[in-house]
């Protein structure tokens, strides 16, 4: 039997797989580039049921259609701490061609918890896909709990190039509790020092691994802000006769 002309089905189950540079080397083309660019690390349980492979083409490539179920544990994206402690279940359907990389991918992510620059998010749901014509990964349905409120958004990630993958991130923060935001930054206070809520819309674009061209815009509204007299901010506002419920709005702030 000519092995090059064979097609068939396969199943893989693997537990406690280490995601690192060695894991990235198992892929070719787009897959390897993606892992190198996002600097993923962590552990996962992987299950592939009834994956399919097709006869080898004249150029030596072979196509695979792979349904993937993965459980991610304490995963990090970006070694600068952008996303850390990601715990999530991922369902994917992937078409992959050796030597050429991804041709199609759809994914659903259900996250139990993660940190974005140290800020906690939970109950994450996101749906994404790879658009081969534009060579871009797109996520247009993102929702999560954050600091007593909700976060919704969308993002895109370009095909990896020599200067890094271009990305765009757009997020809306709705009714976040000021006390929870402050506590995420400073865990030392044992009593409630602040009250109020915050709303924000945020847009940023740039390239992974290159902060020189990162740029964005943010609008923030903070409503019914109160601080106790025990806090440093409360003492300052009391001295200025401003320690009363107040609203603040910050518009078109630049981010660099």
What report would you give on this structure?
It is a single chain. By secondary structure, this protein is mostly beta strands. It has helices at residues 21-24, 30-38, 178-185, 232-239; strands at residues 8-19, 40-53, 63-77, 83-97, 101-116, 119-131, 136-146, 149-158, 166-177, 194-207, 210-227, 246-255.
Q: Biggest β-sheet: count, sense, barrel? A: 12 strands, antiparallel
Strand content range: over 45%
Unreliable residue stretches: 230-256
Number of strands: 12
The percent of residues in helical segments reads 10-25%
Question: What order do the strands of the largest sheet run in, or round the barrel if closed?
Answer: 1-2-3-4-5-6-7-8-9-10-11-12
Number of helices: 4
Q: State the shape.
A: elongated
* N-C termini distance: 60 Å
The topology string of helices and strands comes to: EHHEEEEEEEEHEEHE
Structural class determined from secondary elements: mainly beta
What is the mean predicted local confidence, pLDDT?
Answer: 78
Query: In angstroms, what is the radius of gyration?
Result: 23 Å
């Amino acid at each position: 039997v000519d092995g090059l002309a064979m097609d068939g089905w396969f199943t893989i189950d693997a537990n406690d797989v280490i995601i690192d540079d060695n894991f990235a080397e198992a892929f070719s083309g787009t897959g390897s580039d993606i892992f190198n660019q996002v600097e993923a690390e962590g552990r996962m349980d992987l299950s592939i049921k009834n994956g399919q492979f097709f006869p080898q083409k004249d150029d030596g490539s072979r196509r695979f259609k792979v349904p993937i179920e993965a459980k991610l544990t304490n995963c990090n994206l970006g070694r600068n701490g952008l996303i850390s402690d990601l715990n999530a279940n991922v369902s994917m359907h992937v078409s992959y061609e050796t030597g050429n990389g991804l041709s199609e991918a759809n994914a659903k992510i259900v996250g139990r918890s993660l940190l974005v620059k140290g800020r906690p998010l939970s109950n994450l749901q996101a749906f994404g896909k790879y658009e081969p014509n534009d060579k871009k990964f797109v996520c247009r349905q993102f929702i999560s709990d954050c600091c007593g409120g909700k976060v919704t958004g969308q993002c895109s990630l370009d095909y990896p190039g020599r200067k890094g993958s271009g990305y765009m991130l757009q997020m809306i923060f709705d009714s976040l509790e000021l006390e929870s935001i402050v506590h995420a930054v400073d865990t030392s206070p044992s009593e409630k020092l602040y009250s109020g809520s915050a709303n924000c819309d945020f847009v940023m674009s740039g390239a992974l691994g290159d902060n020189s061209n990162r740029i964005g815009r943010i609008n923030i509204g903070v409503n019914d802000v109160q601080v106790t007299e025990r806090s440093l901010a409360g003492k300052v506002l009391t001295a200025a006769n401003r320690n009363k419920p107040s609203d603040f709005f910050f518009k078109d702030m630049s981010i660099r």
